[in-house]
Write a structure and sequence with these properties.
This protein is mainly alpha-helical. Helices cover 47% and strands 5% of the residues. It contains 19 helices and six strands. The strands form two sheets. It has a four-stranded mixed sheet with strand order 1-2-5-6, sandwiched between helices. Strands 3-4 form a two-stranded antiparallel ribbon.
């Protein structure tokens, strides 16, 4: 009888313990949801394994389109994020020196089909141990660039420009589509076209493992096919948050902006315009010809009925001049009809430096040094290397020649249009160009 009572007591205690564990787990999840900001929930993936295919990714080329997610998908994604956060406490932090998931060695490849149920873990690359500190000059360079941004954004007596004082919540979602998020490494990159953005997008694709070949993520940025680099479905941007997280989207954006490392790369504004013109209008580009070149030819040139295709136009030697391009940028009808294209839109309008406190500001003029410094700061220099840059096809020394046919008044008007970018990012006013 006593033995039976003892067993009954033990069973009751065991049942009570399970109830306490269940209630505790529920309480913890509620606590996470209620105090989302305090617990830093956006570090979901910061301790995840940094390489290897994720089971939710599709082969051979890309993930399913996040824009086509159903309500059930959104709910599952949100619950998965909560699970990932809770698992950090249950499983602990992964040691970066541990082996990580990667491709099978050549000797193992032929056994792969018979071992599908058994995961392979092989080191992908040696972890770098930096024995030397980061160059103080590089640190100071970043401090100076960030301080300049802070001064212009916070000081009302300095240069003013549209949108300078608005809050982050005032920025429409469609204006946040240049902010690419990598949750695996806690990185946010604001890409600026014509500022090495193709290679930085390649880096982000490799880090996020959003593109697969035969079920394996790309490891070398240069292996990423050129035609896929700018594929929007491969980049998870802030603009897509509302489709995945709904009413939580803005809140999560703010948390990630607070927790993640944010960077952008900039360039002399006038040189960037020259580069944009050369790339989009001196080379045959059907899309840009139809959307922009035809408008320029009709408005500012003698062509009332320009060729319908870029092939025919180039064959006839017809294309808008650089002067036509500048006229188009300065024409009030341009912005009235359609917003500036990202290739010539001001950097401050793409990346919102007065609303987002960037941790790193790189420049194309110091690209190699800045890229190496940034990858080391991000602790991903063991995972990727920035592709070697081909020395710039468009340089500042060309400005005088390119603007020679632009009227002086138009040059000054153009400077006023891009003055915020000059000042915010520390580019000298081109006085010689504006006073001759």
């Amino acid at each position: 009888m006593a033995l039976s009572q003892t067993k009954s007591t033990k069973m009751g205690m065991s049942r009570l313990l399970r109830i306490f564990v269940f209630v505790g787990a529920v309480f913890m999840i509620l606590l996470i949801i209620i105090y989302w900001d305090e617990v830093g929930a956006t570090n979901f993936y910061l301790h995840a394994t940094i390489s290897g295919p994720h089971p939710s990714r599709l082969t051979p080329h890309r993930r399913s389109d996040p824009e086509k997610k159903t309500d059930e998908d959104k709910e599952n994604s949100f619950l998965t994020d909560i699970d990932a956060f809770v698992n950090q406490f249950l499983e602990g932090t992964i040691d970066p020196t541990e082996q990580v998931r990667g491709e099978p060695t050549p000797g193992e490849a032929h056994n792969q089909s018979s071992e599908k149920s058994e995961e392979k873990f092989v080191p992908r690359r040696e972890w770098k141990i930096h024995l030397t500190p980061i160059d103080p000059e590089m640190k100071q360079r970043q401090e100076n660039r960030k301080q300049l941004l802070q001064d212009f954004c916070s000081n009302r007596s300095l240069f003013d420009f549209p949108g300078k004082y608005r809050n982050f919540d005032d920025i429409p979602n469609k204006e946040l589509d240049h902010l690419i998020v990598d949750d695996r490494h806690g990185i946010i990159y604001c890409y600026v076209p014509k500022v090495a953005c193709s290679n930085w997008k390649r880096i982000m694709i490799v880090l996020s493992e959003s593109l697969l070949l035969d079920g394996v993520p790309y490891q070398n940025p240069l292996d990423v096919p050129q035609d896929l680099v700018h594929n929007s479905s491969l980049h998870f941007t802030f603009n897509k948050f509302w489709k995945r997280y709904g009413k939580f989207s803005r809140h999560l954006m703010k948390i990630k902006l607070k927790k993640y490392t944010k960077f952008l790369f900039v360039r002399d504004p006038f040189v960037r315009l020259i580069s944009a013109y050369r790339n989009k209008f001196e080379q045959p580009n059907e899309d840009f010809y139809r959307r922009f070149a035809v408008v320029m030819l009709k408005r500012y040139s003698k062509y009332t009925n320009p060729p319908a295709s870029v092939v025919n136009a180039f064959a006839a030697g017809i294309r808008p001049s650089f002067t036509n391009f500048i006229q188009y940028l300065l024409d009030p009808k341009t912005e009235k009809d359609t917003p500036f294209n990202e290739h010539w839109k001001q950097i401050y309008r793409l990346c919102h430096p007065c609303q987002i406190n960037y941790d790193f500001v790189g420049k194309l003029e110091t690209l190699d040094e800045d890229a190496e410094h940034l990858l080391r700061i991000l602790r991903v220099d063991n995972v990727v290397e920035f592709p070697p840059s081909h020395r710039n096809r468009t340089v500042s020394s060309w400005e005088q020649d390119w603007f020679a046919k632009i009227p002086l008044e138009s040059r000054n008007e153009l400077y006023r249009l891009y003055e915020a970018d000059f000042k915010l990012f520390g580019y000298s006013k081109p006085d010689k160009l504006l006073h001759e």
